[in-house]
Input
Amino acid sequence: MSILVNKKTRVVCQGITGTQATFHIRRSLDYGTNVVSGVTPGKGGEVHLGLPVFNTVKEAKAETGANASVMYVPAPYVKSAVQEAVEAELDLSVCIADGVPVKDMLEIKAMLKGAKTKFIGPNTPGIITPGQARLGIFPENIHTPGKVGIISRSSTLTYEAVIETTRAGEGQSTVIGLGDDMLIGIDFVEAVRQFQDDDETRAIIMIGQAGGTFEEEAARYYQRLERKKPLIGFVAGNAVPFGHKMGYAGDIMTNGHVSAQDKKDAMAAAGITVVEKINDIHKELSKIFALS
Amino acid sequence: MNIHEYQAKKILSRYGIKIPKGGVAYTPHEAKRVAFRSTLRGPWMLKAQIQSGARNKGYFLEKKAGKGGGIRLIKSRRDIVTEAEKMLGSTLVTVQTGPKGKLVGRLYVEAFTKVNGIFYAGLAIDRLNAALTLLVAEVVNYDISELAVRHPERILKIPLDLEGETTPEQVRQVMDFLKLPPRCAKNLEVFINGLHRAFIDNDAVMIEINPAGVTKGGEIVALDAKISFDDNALYRHQEILRLKDDYEASERELQAAKYRFNYSEFDGSVGLIVNGDGIALAAMDLLRGKGIGTACFLNVKGGVDKDKIASGIKIIMTNPRVEGILINILGGFLRCNLIADGIISAASEVGLNVPLIVRFEGTNKDEAREILEKSKLPIIMAETMEDAVNKLSDAVEENE
Output
């Protein structure tokens, strides 16, 4: 088992003919991901990496049965690409690009309200279910199938968390990078909920980041759960002095609580095992798996 | 991207928002001219144009600037030039600038506006609910920074649409909340609508009027103004990009920005090169655990061009604070071999005279290690981030 993607997921790549898409889709195909088609407006009818290319996501869905998309389109085109994915009623859409304007994300979040499509990103390494499906830019060679679910707002720390599971002798059920932009699609609450419901996942790792209140919300959600899977949390940013800032609106939005320590306190109070060093995660994992 | 008060006021006045009469001045005599153009009788306000809040509660590092803060009320004509002389060319420190402060190179000079009441108005993004939100608060007895932390319930929050259409109902809500007299109604509507439109039209991420004043006649005047724009949307706002003040950033920050890298400077001694902010923060935490401070970090993000990466690495190598460099790359999008090539090219140009610890993981890491080994440069390879931090700590100690 896994969450959101597995070997049955039929993937269409939005922006497939681009350089980065070509590099990563080839690797995803080699990994065994069930990529069935690609979309590049104006290049419909071509064949790329052995896959049929369509002008629209709707066509790709109708012709190849795609139910999830991974997009490598540049930031200015993300809004229209998401709109296509939503209108085609895909189950999932993953956006790698960084630099998506906040206003575009506000509009995207409005589009997603009540829509069938779940959205991951932007500015994320994507999602990978080891041995089954890779949607994004994960270095696949560090992953092994297993029982630990990983959720992270930081791309690079996601990889650190994966390496920690390996050090503990465990693998990963699914790894999701939420993205660390101001506004994101799926958040910690949704991801924790999915891992709680997944039979295969026995423990969860959550990597937060200073700024916003996504971690606090997840802590509140976790605290209310009756049957809790073990959750290990880490938040980077203790050593950073508050940088130059302008104005108070940000403080108002979070009631003044934005530091890494605020987040760690909220997580610990909710029963999450908070580690001070990311390289300590494997020790906590070993304890969890030794018990069961 | 942030802009100065005088620039923000100019933009907002185009949306119908009332601002006191005034202008920007770069010299004391220009300050006098602008002051007289605003009002002949005074009083006047001299306001340091640095991008920070709480300027009035700030202090100057230089003695010549006197005891006053960054915002001064001038009552007599002859004081305009002397006060402007004190402030210009001095360094203002506020709670938001950090201890180094910011150099004041220009003043905003405006006519003092007599008001009967003041309030705070802000527009910001509610990240959790993905909504543009209007924030309003009374700030007569409390500072907004205090309210934010201690009495968040005393701040009115209203979600606004993305079309820039404030509804009459929303304006009424603000009227009631601030208990404004009926004669303010029309002016408040113009004020809120103006903020809302300015935010949407210009891809702002924050607009703050702290405070807005209410005059005897019921006018709403923006006594101060701050706007932050979305860096990611500047490509569609060339006119805003022109407002950027390069004096607010250091030389190395500007260079890094040219290549679209994230670069931050601190007070420590280690230079970090990473490909994610998260990993930079985690490494800084580990370094601090060893009693080592960070001088700067460079996040090359998904940079794919070898020459750009070499230029980025040079920024770190040429920072005089740096006594040791830690490169921690977890290749995904970014291929490790490009970083290896970049290290060699940068080292051949500017030399490598401090310890360099490198840790590669992920995409093309073996290839990257091989490139570095062949180069015969004195580079120490590490397995994990913690290992890298330990090795760096040992190397820096040995070097001393």
Notes: Residues 250-399 of chain B form a domain with the Rossmann fold fold (CATH 3.40.50.261).
